[in-house]
Amino acid sequence: MTAVDKIVLGHGSGGRLSRELVEDVFLKSFFNASLSPLEDSAEVRFPGGTLAFTTDSYVVTPVEFPGADIGRVAVCGTVNDLAVKGARPLALSAGFILEEGFPGALLKKITASMRRAADEAGVSIVTGDTKVVEKGKADGIFINTSGIGLIPGGRKLSSYSVKPGDVIIVSGNLADHGVAVMNARDRLGLEGNIKSDAAPLNGLVEAALKVPGVRAMRDITRGGLATVLNEVSGACGLTAEVDEEAVPVSSAARNACALLGLDPLYVANEGKLVLFAAPGAAAGILKALRSHRYGKNARAAGRMLKEKKPQVRLKTSIGGSRIMLMLEGEQLPRIC
Ligand code: MG
Asked: How many angstroms is it from 237 CA to the middle of ligand 1?
């Protein structure tokens, strides 16, 4: 790993460079037991139990795109970071950095969208902050959301708990969010009516957790499934083997990715999770996921294996196999 010299766009990719930035700068400066697992939310113990605590900033451009907008993504992203740790969201904050001249009507539209997403998740935005910078010193609107949630006693979901033989379940079609934003940003006019999948997943998570045997969950945002699997593989020391044919991707998104030179396994999502299920529990968990509106297309897409040298491996549809590393560089800046 190289020391961070100067910030480049890739440091915000969610992939290898983001990881290096976090390890070289933030982890070294802030090191503590809650931070160091580097999962979607930190676990913070207090005398009455365990809280999940998370924060995320949103810089997506354009601010509106088919299926969602920056406000919906800001609420869903934070709710999902809490939910995948098994936490029930308690409250959110919202901080706004606005550029002088930003239209008030658009700000109202964005905050109304945040309210709808929060209502859907059953959580309130209870505190916030606003800063305004001079024209040209920011790009319209940036939003930061933080969230706290309560992890009910007995729940312990962590990438470090994944075991050999565990089934990798993907909760639905990948790549829709990234493709929808790219299409809107560059006015590509892609066919297939692809919409962002941004959605709060806490209801889906509760449905899955009714079935015992969930070891871990991660939300599949920047860097896509390939990057998240690399993080989990690194944490538990196991190989993640994925069957290419079993990974759910709509044909519209697959075609769009082919046209744009993107691999759907590396494209960002805002309403999808990957779940690691004990082998005997996978069928029941899959059924529970599929019974929820945000899990209809859930599929078992691979397995965790004990091998000498843990890796993330894709078994291709033509019988070959390919190693999947973390996302390199930055394929889609400002996607969330
Ligand atoms: Mg996350």
From this structure: 20
What the block records as the tokens of 121 is: 């998740």
- CA 257 to centroid of ligand 1, rounded, Å: 22
- CA–CA dist 110, 72 (Å, integer): 8
Mind listing the pLDDT tens digit for each residue in 11-55? Answer: 998 899 999 999 999 999 999 999 999 999 999 999 989 999 999
Domains along the chain with CATH numbers: 32-151 (3.30.1330.10), 159-323 (3.90.650.10)
In what helix (H) or strand (E) does residue 276 lie, and over which residues does it extend?
strand 273-277
CA of 203 to the centre of ligand 1 (A): 17
Closest of 54, 58, 55, 63 to residue 143, by C-alpha: 58
How many CB atoms neighbour CB 45 within 10 A?
11
Statement: the pTM of the whole predicted model exceeds 0.90: yes
Rounded distance from Cα 113 to ligand 1 centre (Å): 21
Alpha-carbon gap, residue 102 to 81, rounded angstroms = 29
Structure tokens belonging to residue 111:
């905050």
As a whole number, mean pLDDT of residues 228-249 equals 97
Half-sphere exposure in the Cβ direction for 223 (13 Å, CA): 26
Helix (H) or strand (E) holding 227: helix 224-236
Distance 162 CA to ligand 1 centre (A): 18
Of the candidates 66, 195, 58, 74, the residue with the CA atom closest to the CA atom of residue 140:
58
**How does 181-217 read in b/e, with b if 16+ C-beta sit within 10 Å?**
bbbbeeeeebeeebebbbbbbbbbbebbbebebbbbb
Ligand 1 centroid vs 18 CA: distance in angstroms?
A: 13
